[in-house]
Amino acid sequence: DSGVTQTPKHLITATGQRVTLRCSPRSGDLSVYWYQQSLDQGLQFLIHYYNGEERAKGNILERFSAQQFPDLHSELNLSSLELGDSALYFCASSVGSGINTGELFFGEGSRLTVL
Amino acid sequence: DAKTTQPNSMESNEEEPVHLPCNHSTISGTDYIHWYRQLPSQGPEYVIHGLTSNVNNRMASLAIAEDRKSSTLILHRATLRDAAVYYCILRDTNRDDKIIFGKGTRLHILP
């Protein structure tokens, strides 16, 4: 158990819909990272938050947005869903950022299926 | 984009040593070399990391070339439970906000 909690574990929805994925980092970790993993693809970096502030963005679609709340949990919002958005979405947390990042701890992922 | 190059897949026999290569020819002086692995149906987990010297821990060893343009993750005695995707990534200690994973190497262990 990494200490990172992601909900829901599985989600099935239709094209055009909107979903929210939630991540609770390990106790004491200030950084949250979101990754997308499609079939046969590696981990695609989406976005990084540190202590409530956005620190880096990857190839995140405009239909996707995220935020980190004062209690440090994070949510990834996916809207106007398309079939191609079906994937595993992973959240990871770490103690700090930059030189103080430390090891990444990953959750078990949220599997999104868009029909 | 990932700054490392790894073979797509490798096979090894159970209880044999495994050497997983990684090329990172554009590595900078402040880049640490990290390895993670992703077991089936799980999120990735940290394996080991190093800067210049070879490193050992309970999971694996990391051998880093003298010019730092390549490294090798060594599993001394592979078990079936080591079958996973292994990712080699570079982390810049000055700019660590984007942590980019590539596609990794899928390691198959033959019984």
Describe this structure in words.
The complex is a heterodimer of chains A (115) and B (111). Chain A is an all-beta fold and 115 residues long. Chain A contains no helices and eleven strands. In chain A, strands 2, 4, 5, 6, 9, 10 and 11 form a seven-stranded mixed β-sheet that branches. Chain A is globular, with a radius of gyration of 13 Å. With 111 residues, chain B is mainly beta. Chain B contains no helices and nine strands. In chain B, the strands form two sheets. Chain B has a five-stranded mixed β-sheet, with no helix packed on it. Chain B has a four-stranded antiparallel β-sheet with strand order 2-7-6-5, with no helix packed on it. The chains are: A mainly beta (115), B mainly beta (111). At the A-B interface, strand 5 and strand 10 of A face loops of B.
Sheet with most strands: strand arrangement of chain B? 1-9-8-3-4
If you average the pLDDT of chain B, what whole number results? 91
How is the main sheet of chain A built? Answer: 7 strands, mixed
Note the overall shape of chain A: globular
Percent strand of chain A: over 45%
Order of helices and strands of chain A: EEEEEEEEEEE
Q: In total, how many beta strands of chain A?
A: 11
